Amino acid sequence: MENPYKYSYIRKNIPKLLKASYAKFSVSYGGYLHEKHVTETELVYNNLSPNYTTRLNLEYCFEEKQIITTEIFECDREDRENSVLLGYIQCTVGRVIHSGGELILPITWNEDIQVDRNTSTEVVVCIREDPFSKENIFIKMNGANLDKKDFFGKSDPYVIIYRRNERGKLQKCYRSEVIKNTLFPDWKPILICLDRLCGGNIDCELYFRCFDWDGAVGDSEDVDTEIDDLIGEFNTTVSRLLNSNENGIEFS
């Protein structure tokens, strides 16, 4: 699942006074070779302990390995094109969050620059949940006359809701419980954060897919869409759901 967070960085006790410095934040999804999301901070002048106010907005995906890298640069005033890499820090988003949202890490200095490497430089990275992402939506789903997928019985249906992430890939937002041996499932109500469901964009296309749990291996918590049969699917938006009447919307 995805939860919205903001990443920031504080550096203390720099071994030399910098004319100007800035940091570059990047998050890679699924490993080093995957696409990165990059943000550069503002310039901070003549400061041994810069605290950059620019934040990197990110979504924590517990199902993916997200590697976050912070590179620190020195430059002459506004001349970022000729900036020099001083060093970097690197860790995973999950490690920071599981450390209470704040972590002190060592900096890896650029071997081509001269600094006093004996100076104790504290690098503090912070990840905080976005306080403006608490708007929720209530969704109730049920099905009628679903296709029978099991040879000796009825279906064991469950629903997964997807949306496309910033890389154009389908991202799982929610999975319902499995209801066994029925063609008329009535799933538990959903209370879900809008940011998690649609990234805060109520016109974002959502993909509802209903599967029949195979049931051959494990329990109903261990679903596998590569094995389970697809019963049916439909697309809609939060905006359309919000504009429905008290009887809801029927999809077929």
The chain-level structural class is mainly beta
Q: Output the CATH homologous superfamily of the largest domain.
A: C2 domain
Number of domains: 2
Helix content: under 10%
Morphology call? elongated
Query: Distance between termini?
Result: 27 Å
How would you spell out the order of helices and strands?
A: EEEEEEEHEEEEEEEHEEH
Query: Beta-strand level of the residues, as a percent range?
Result: 35-45%
What is the arithmetic mean of pLDDT?
80
DSSP helix count?
3
β-strand number? 16
* Level-2 CATH architecture of the largest domain: Sandwich
Q: Unreliable runs, pLDDT <50, ≥5 residues? A: none
- Sheet with the most strands, sense and barrel status: 6 strands, antiparallel
CATH topology (level 3) name of the largest domain: Immunoglobulin-like
**CATH first level of the largest domain:** Mainly Beta
**Compute the gyration radius: what is it?**
24 Å
Protein name: C2 domain-containing protein
GO molecular function, one term: calcium-dependent phospholipid binding
Domain C2: 117-252
GO biological process, one term: cellular response to calcium ion
